[in-house]
């Protein structure tokens, strides 16, 4: 009996040697680091070599998805307690050495008892934030107004010396001059973060290699001052409610995204270098056409989202000589879309145009309800425009007129896409989508009118060299709808 047991043990040991070849531990650690978090945990349970490397796993990502926590696996009011316990167990057995990425995402917070993770977060960060960490992402959502106060003292020594990416969401962040030098930081993202002007200036002053700054819903910032950061190329500022001015001395800023009122004073230094702009505000189309050609003459990509547009785009002599990509989103279906021809006349290098027509309360005049002939603008040929995409295409008279103008005046046009589905995904677009997004009977009826407008006014004018794509409601998902 003993001899038989020894043979089985020897056989088992031999199999282990075969399944786990003799490799240096740093090789095992490297292989282990390439696996996603859940897979890395699984192999650590069945492999002695991986179990050892698990203690120094460099990429730690924690979320409900990581642990498979949802209402099917855990009671709703216990999800965060389960989450907190699991993170505790993992970090308890982690050496804290060699962590490069720490990513914590919390979404399922239902009541005040779910704030338990906030009580443990300081101790977790003490374990993982050491010299060598490169990416730190925190979204510690709390309930009942609870916000996490990020301990800036973590970076007071040299712990943040190699940090490249810092992303904080829903927390308090109050850095001072004692925060230390973040000399490797390239990306700073602050969303729904309480931070004041002077505190932000402190961290920017020590971030010499910063390439991207992203601020969203930072309601305490009034005057955003950006020092002379040589590497800063991308600035994103969105919905900071108290913001009154942005002053940037960064000489190489090339991309600017800003969602905010027109009264916010912008001083971007050498704005001539800006090649990509996203602007969201009231009367954005009018602002873009009247102000931007002189302020940012070297734009190559322009995206504008207008929440309301009170005035049509004017015809002006100013030009966007380098503009290649133009996206316009308008929140008014009764807008005179034909006036957007002004952008085409001003953009001789334009190659791609996308128009998003956002459904509004005001119904536009259908081309079938107005007996007068469609308007035609003075013909200005587009020599480089190749692709045009219109989302939520309808029978709105001015929208049909704009499309006809594009078809007739654009000899370089290769592809025209008219989407009557409001731009929503269809069941055929996504394997996880079983059916199309629900459309009302009124929306389906308008889609039918839009298809008729295409057949009557647009298709006869389309050259045989142009690919015309008309996206209509799915016949399968809407087969039972009565128009």
Q: What name does the CATH topology of the domain at 275-483 carry?
A: Leucine-rich repeat, LRR (right-handed beta-alpha superhelix)
Note poorly predicted spans: 7-18
Radius of gyration: 29 Å
Number of E-state strands: 19
Described by the principal axes of the CA atoms, the overall outline is globular
Q: What is the percentage of strand-forming residues?
A: 15-25%
DSSP helix fraction: 25-40%
Give the termini distance in whole angstroms: 81 Å
Mean pLDDT: 84
Major pleated sheet: 16 strands, parallel
Q: Which architecture name of the domain at 275-483 does CATH use? A: Alpha-Beta Horseshoe
Describe the protein's architecture and organization:
There is one protein chain. The chain is α/β, with parallel strands linked by helices and about 475 residues long. Among the domains are: about 160-260; about 275-483, Leucine-rich repeat, LRR (right-handed beta-alpha superhelix). It is about 30% helix and about 20% strand. The protein has twelve helices and 19 strands. The chain has helices spanning about 1-20, 25-35, 35-45, 50-55, 65, 80-90, 115-130, 195-205, 285-295, 340-345, 395-410, 440-460, and strands at about 60, 100-105, 135-140, 150, 165-170, 185-195, 210-215, 225, 235-240, 245-250, 255-260, 265, 275-280, 300-305, 325-330, 350-355, 385-390, 415-420, 465-470. Helix 3 packs across helix 4 (about 50-55). The longest helix has 18 residues, at about 1-20. It is globular, with a radius of gyration of 29 Å. About 30% of the residues are buried. Residues about 5-20 have low confidence and may be disordered.
């Amino acid at each position: 009996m003993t001899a038989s047991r020894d043979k089985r043990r020897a056989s088992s040991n031999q199999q282990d040697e075969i399944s786990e070849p003799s490799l240096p531990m740093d090789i095992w650690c490297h292989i282990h680091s390439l696996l996603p978090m859940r897979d890395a945990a699984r192999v650590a349970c069945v492999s002695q070599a991986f179990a050892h490397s698990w203690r120094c796993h460099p990429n730690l990502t924690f979320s409900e998805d990581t642990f498979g926590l949802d209402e099917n696996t855990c009671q709703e009011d216990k999800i965060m307690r389960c989450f907190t316990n699991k993170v505790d167990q993992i970090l308890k057995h982690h050496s804290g050495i060699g962590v490069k990425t720490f990513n914590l995402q919390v979404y399922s917070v239902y009541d005040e008892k779910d704030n338990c993770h906030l009580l443990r977060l300081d101790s977790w960060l003490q374990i993982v934030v050491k010299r060598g960490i490169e990416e730190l992402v925190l979204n510690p959502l709390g309930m009942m107004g609870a916000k996490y106060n990020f301990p800036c003292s973590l970076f007071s020594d040299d712990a943040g010396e190699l940090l490249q990416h810092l992303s904080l969401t829903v927390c308090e962040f109050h850095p001072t001059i004692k925060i230390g030098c973040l000399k490797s930081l390239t990306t700073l993202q602050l969303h729904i973060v309480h931070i004041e002007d002077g505190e932000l200036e402190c961290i920017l002053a020590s971030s010499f290699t910063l390439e991207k700054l992203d601020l969203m819903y930072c309601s305490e910032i009034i005057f955003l001052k950006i020092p002379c950061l040589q590497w800063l190329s991308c600035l994103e500022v969105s919905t900071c409610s108290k913001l009154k001015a942005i002053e940037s001395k960064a000489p190489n800023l090339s991309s600017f995204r800003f969602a905010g009122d027109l009264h916010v004073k912008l001083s971007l230094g050498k704005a001539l270098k800006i090649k990509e702009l996203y602007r969201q505000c009231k009367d954005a189309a009018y602002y873009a056409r009247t102000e931007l050609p002189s302020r940012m003459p070297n734009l190559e990509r322009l995206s504008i989202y207008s929440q309301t547009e009170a005035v049509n785009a004017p015809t002006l002599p100013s030009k966007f000589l380098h503009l290649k990509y133009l996206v316009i989103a308008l929140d008014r279906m009764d807008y005179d879309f034909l006036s957007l021809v002004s952008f085409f006349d001003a953009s001789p290098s334009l190659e791609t145009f996308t128009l998003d027509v956002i459904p509004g309360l005001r119904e536009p005049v259908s081309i079938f309800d107005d007996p007068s002939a469609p308007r035609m603008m003075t013909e200005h040929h587009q020599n480089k425009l190749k692709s045009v995409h219109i989302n939520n295409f309808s029978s709105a008279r001015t929208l049909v007129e704009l499309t006809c103008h594009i078809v007739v005046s654009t000899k370089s046009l290769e592809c025209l896409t008219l989407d009557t589905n409001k731009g929503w995904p269809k069941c055929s677009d996504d394997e996880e989508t079983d059916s199309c997004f629900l459309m009302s009977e009124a929306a389906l009826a308008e889609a039918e009118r839009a298809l008729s407008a295409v057949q009557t006014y647009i298709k006869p004018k389309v050259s045989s060299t142009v690919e015309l794509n008309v996206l209509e409601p799915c016949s399968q998902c809407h087969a039972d709808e009565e128009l």
